[in-house]
Amino acid sequence: MTQHASYGEVRGPRAGEISRRGFMRRMLGIGVGIMSLEFLGGTLAFLWPNLSEGLGAEINIGSAEDINNAQPEWKNGLPYVYGQANLFVVNVPAAKARVEGEGTVSSPVEDPGTNFGEDIPLADLSILALWRKCPHLGCQIPQLCDQSQWFECLCHGSKYSVLGEKRDGPAPRGMDRFPVAAVDGAYVVNTGEVIDGPPPGTVTFDDRAPTDTPHCSG
Questions:
Q1: Fewer CB within 10 Å: N-end or C-end of the chain?
Q2: pLDDT digits over 184-197, tens only?
Q3: 90: enclosing H helix or E strand
Q4: How far apart are CA 148 and CA 112, in angstroms?
Q5: Dihedral of CA 67/70/72/77: which sign?
């Protein structure tokens, strides 16, 4: 009769349990996964932030003096970034002078006035409230490029004049905007009414082609 050697009791994790090495591997995998999700989430939050936050109401953004105090370069044509509603508030006469002066303004416009309404030509408006949400895929448009004096979306290269008119890229139209009114000396933006941006080819002023100037984006 053949005898088999006895190897003794086989020791290891019980059914339903994992070894210490397996546990450490699993925890390492979970940690790497969490870090990857956090990185991905931060990247997506930058490119596609919640651009609807703060919208839907009439927002008092202050007087011309208030805006100049918050951003002194507004009187020199640099759009005012109103973060609570993701707006660019454009001082139209100062912006026109900035573009024509290739980034400089000889006579600052501290108070552009209160010309509003659909019947007023864009070039004669006092201020313009542009939505920072790119009409292409919704990325957040950064501040005016100091090289081109255009708004340039970093996601896919759509470019817009300081008035939000499309100049280049895949966007289907210019930048969307909101109605503005004057109430007790302050500018009030109605973020509950989104006005589609102008169609491609609209040129109020600044008729430069994309190849006429260097850019901040590709």
A1: N
A2: 999 999 999 999 99
A3: strand 87-91
A4: 23
A5: negative
H and E: helices and strands count for the chain? 3, 10
Task: Name the class of domain 51-212.
Answer: mainly beta
| Amino acid letter for position 36 | S
Q: Is 4 exposed, middle or buried (0-12, 13-18, 19+ CB in 10 A)?
A: exposed
pLDDT digits (tens, 9 = 90+) for 108-125: 999 999 999 888 988 899
Domain boundaries, the chain: 10-47, 51-212
